[in-house]
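sorry to bug you again but im stuck and you know this stuff better than me. theres a chain ive been looking at and ive put its sequence and its fold in token form underneath. id like you to explain what the token line says about the fold, in plain words if possible. anything you notice is useful, everything is just below.
___
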Amino acid sequence: MRLPNRMRRRGLAIGIDIGGTKVAAGLVDGDGRVLKQARRSTPGQDPREVEAVIVDLVRELSAEHHVWSVGIGAAGWMDLAGSTVLFSPHLAWRNEPLRENLERLLRRRVFLVNDADGAAWAEYRFGAGAGESRMVCVTLGTGIGGAMVLDGRLERGRYGVAGEFGHQIIMPGGHRCECGNRGCWEQYASGNALGREARELAAANSPVAQELLRAVDGNAEQVTGAVVTRLALEGDPASIELLDEVGQWLGLGLANLAAALDPGMFVIGGGLSDAGDLLLEPARRSFARNLTGRGFRPAAEMERAAMGPSAGMIGAADLSRIAARR
């Protein structure tokens, strides 16, 4: 494929999103478009095996194109220089000098980024947050991830581990969280939280939960947040009510973040955002009700993320392109 002069001038980069089960890669142009994709299964936890998969993907995607740089996005903590993985929950990376290893193997510039930071950057550059210089991105999935773009740059904190919004304690003494604390926000406003509440309702054989039970052949343990979201979009009243409750918790946590960070926009992504306004409208109402100084201050907008599941790889690619030009 012959690229237009403008695309060649801006340069192509490869973004790689490393998950617990798959490694997805994309060839990304300077306008955030994914021109070509490839993926592999995540080969266990051995760092060398993961590196080999990354090298294989980069070689496949760059076989017919000149690639400026490679961006790697993964769950975990990266150092501020974008060179070392301090900790990754899905892989056996502990103070792993991944950039040095990959640059030696690929002979290209490599940049590391937390996956939530990569997704937020994609939304800021090309998606729902385009044009907003102070944006907070909140990702609702198994838990709650987050990232900030403040004054046009990623804000990662003093040690590179900012954005753990899901672990603000919103209900002291509440549900136990995997992090070890009780009452974390993600225990009330995530996809897992939605599924937990729905399973409790279904397990009690509540009259209002019959549609939920039919959807999982009567096995309440099979009810997930995704099942609730689908049924809510199809009009099931109980599922709509469950989403409304999660939306209220979401709005409360966002009001707390607004008090601390004062962004111009919240961008809401992750699988739970598929519920659209069934989630966001109660969140907006709760946000307005709980915002400090309400009625006497401008309030942040709240929008659904626009870049979809490719946001992480697009953001990682774009950040690597920027780093390679320095």
Q: What stands out?
A: Confidence is low (pLDDT under 50) at residues 1-9. Residues 237-261 form the longest helix (25 residues). The chain is about 40% helix and 20% strand.
